[in-house]
Amino acid sequence: MKVYLRISLLRLQLMSLLAKSRLLIPDFSNWFSLPKPIYSLDAFAQINERYKQAICLTFDDGPDPVYTPKILSLLADYNAKATFFVMGAAAEQHPELVEQIVKDGHAIGNHTYAHHHPWMINTALAKSEVARTSTILERITGTVPRWFRPPFGRLRGVMRKQAYLEKMETVLWNHSIIDWGPLGTHAGITQRLDKIKTGDIVLMHDGKREHNHPDIILQCLPVFLRSLHDKSLVTATLDEFSQIK
Length: 245
Ligand SMILES: [Zn+2]
Prior knowledge:
Layout: H1 2-21, E1 54-60, H2 67-77, E2 82-86, H3 88-93, H4 95-103, E3 107-110, H5 123-141, E4 147-148, H6 157-165, E5 169-170, E6 175-176, H7 186-194, E7 201-205, H8 214-227, E8 234-235, H9 238-244
Parallel strand pairs: 1-2, 1-7, 1-8, 2-3, 4-5, 6-7
Helix pairs in contact: 2-8, 5-6, 7-8
Bound molecules: zinc ion.
């Protein structure tokens, strides 16, 4: 009896160790056919009544100590929800902002550690850019991220595979606000925000990285958020959709 109990205990310990280390056994049947990335909310086939008018706002490259709190405060003013694809390095520097994002009811996604171009790095680094960020986000939020978005939206097999092994879905977008570079003007951003329609996954940036213009996004968001009610659009996080998928 004692031996049986000891074996059961050992088995339990082993299972919890495996669960904690998130050691996943690769599914070889999917090795060459990874799930397709998600581009729009059409990917969620069984959208129920509550989400028929939904749009999904996403903010990349944060958390940013200047812009993320301002965007969070604006979203709260209009009771809008978003999904933040954060960088591991920035999350490590500003864990309190990641905590605030979650506390405000938004979703978190993995946007790699240092935002290297996926095609410009070696295999080992490509893998660790994804894995390291998940570990950091789990440490801060207590849960593993469910969504992965590669930098610049550039797909790389080894990163997608890593995301798949970590049970994340790769999410891109179907409507970019182009809030960077010379096209990221007040007029251009306003025009593109106005074109958002039901089912869109919208790309914006809260992180001031390279050529991003989160300052202009901040100026343009209030008018857009105010218009949601008249357009009968509702904002929802990716986490909300995963529950009905
Ligand atoms: Zn990015």
